[in-house]
Amino acid sequence: MSTLLLSTSASNYCLPSSPFPQHRIAILVHYTKPKPLLNHFVLVSFSATSSTKDVWRKTTPPSSLKPPPFSPSNHRPYRRKQQSSYLDHSVDMDDLLSTIGQTTNEHQLFALMSPYKERNLSMRFMVTLLSRETDWQRSLALLDWINEVALYTPSVFAYNVALRNVLRAKQWRLAYGLFEEMRQRALSPDRYTYSTLITHFGKEGLFDDALSWLQKMEQDHVSGDLVLYSNLIELSRKLCDYSKAISIFSRLKTSGITPDLVAYNTMINVFGKAKLFREARLLVKEMRSVGVMPDTVSYSTLLTMYVENQKFLEALSVFSEMNEVKCPLDLTTCNIMIDVYGQLDMAKEADRLFWSMRKMGIEPNVVSYNTLLRVYGEAELFGEAIHLFRLMQRKSIEQNVVTYNTMIKIYGKTLEHEKANNLIQEMQNIGIEPNAITYSTIISIWGKVGKLDRAAMLFQKLRSSGVEIDQVLYQTMIVAYERAGLVAHAKRLLHELKRPDNIPRETAITILAGSGRIEEATWVFRQAFDAGELKDIAVFECMIELYSRNRKYTNLIEVFEKMREAGYFPNSNVIALVLNAYGKLQEFEKADMVYKEMQEEGCVFSDEVHFQMLSLYGARRNFEMVETLYEKLDSNPNVNKKELHLVVAGIYEKANRVNDASRIVNRMTYRGTM
């Protein structure tokens, strides 16, 4: 490599070609005062011939301290015989650390450490010294001194500490360089090495990198532990990348590790978010089979999953099971079940549960009161609702914006718009600020009672005041205009979303997609994607659903490819829509490729996805693949066998293969599947 010239405001520095490994090139230039070294480092770009892991090159130390060259192609540097006795107890580590902290470049640090270059300090002492040096640049210089000046035998512990320090400083490329250097020094990265890399990359949202480290770890046959896999699962969950979480959970179990209660509860939540309800339910059974007893959190997570997806009867079933196994209730469980009873028109049961909470030693909170208020309102028990609302005030139970929004909505049911408006003034007087739901509710009420001028005036005032206009508020105003017959006004609002200036583009896309405005949603989506503004996987999903509803299969595939390009992992519902789109476009090979690729990456499919793929094989008249997949699914205990047999029989019947259809039906009848 040719000489690199670095220029700073103080002076010029010449970095001659160095035999040091190309994957770790340090830019350690002179720094003048005891400040953090980061301010005195100059980054340079390297030639195209440099390795992608080239990150830093060390300045040439004084000739008296210059270490023997290290190169994987040369023989290993001569290392002096290990000392039999050390000076560890005679050296004050705190003083040494303090002095190291005063050094302003690697030359000073090397000079400071020169009395110990005969390795009269043990490796344990040096690793401890490294671990207590928090500045990543000094720790790298110290690591270089250990390896190249004092010629200690390279230590994986020393590299692990240096890795930790550079990762804490978010020096990602340096981490890659240190890892490669470990390899070239014939050091085998251990569990701590990989755990440190995976955890730091994952926490920073560099998830593809984190997963690539996990893959390297598995290729090196380094076993991960429960904490490592649990951290990755939790990171996936927080990033709403549920398919990746499921894939990692499968790897965890494949590696022979038994998940603990926390891991299982997290996965119940993940399966629920991925809308894999049966898998979430089966996980509770699996927990018992491996000796991990479900707790209150397990059941409340299941309840939340069903309630979020409007599956209230299933939630009621889970609650019954919870009582049967005598699992103690908590505040969250009671609040959820008050809501469930309300959704099932069981207001009396909701009322009974609420007033029995204190007997169970559970003190109702504002969520409990708000939920019962909503139940009373939905059951048109307006007197009970008003009584409970005022009871909260008499007992000094803190009310919040949700409390007032619920009461405003109740007054809206009786079209008492003045009382609703008075509540807005009341909440403002006690310091509770109305939110978008408050305003959308009052706008809706005014629209119903014919006060459209007041609704429009409030909406315009909100837009000009800088209040965040969310999709609910926008859609409420559009509906109000349409209900009043002012279609042109509604269209104008929709058209404005094409060039949103007061709401995020992601919100604009969601509103346009929800309103079925294909062209406008497509335009805004492409603009936002090209600008790198799409950070929410739900935006991709709503566009895919929009195109599927309107049979725009080419556009659907375009969004799916962009979704994968952005690093998002599709859920089971998205994959089903994508497979259907490929089928409509007669691109069966691409459908087959997506199906197999997602399975290899650990995606858990709902039955509908498998049946969709069977139908595509049938449409292509690839009956060999139909039979192969049928046999595979038939042996899967998690697949609904009745539906499987009916789907396959229907495929053969449609293809006029009567004998095969009869065979499948007879097989189903013989097993008693009917």
From TrEMBL:
One Pfam family named in its UniProt record: PPR
Bilayer-spanning residue ranges: none
Stretches forming PPR repeats: 155-189, 190-224, 225-259, 260-294, 295-329, 330-364, 365-399, 400-434, 435-469, 470-504, 536-570, 571-605
Start and end residues of each stretch annotated as Disordered: 54-84
UniProt KW Protein biosynthesis keyword: no
Keywords in alphabetical order: Repeat
Superkingdom in the source lineage: Eukaryota
Alphabetized InterPro entries for the sequence: PPR_rpt, TPR-like_helical_dom_sf
NCBIfam families: PPR (TIGR00756)
PANTHER family hit by this protein: OS03G0856100 PROTEIN (PTHR47447), PENTATRICOPEPTIDE REPEAT-CONTAINING PROTEIN (PTHR47447:SF7)
UniProt record similarity statement: Belongs to the PPR family. P subfamily.
The protein's name: Pentatricopeptide repeat-containing protein
Lineage: Eukaryota, Viridiplantae, Streptophyta, Embryophyta, Tracheophyta
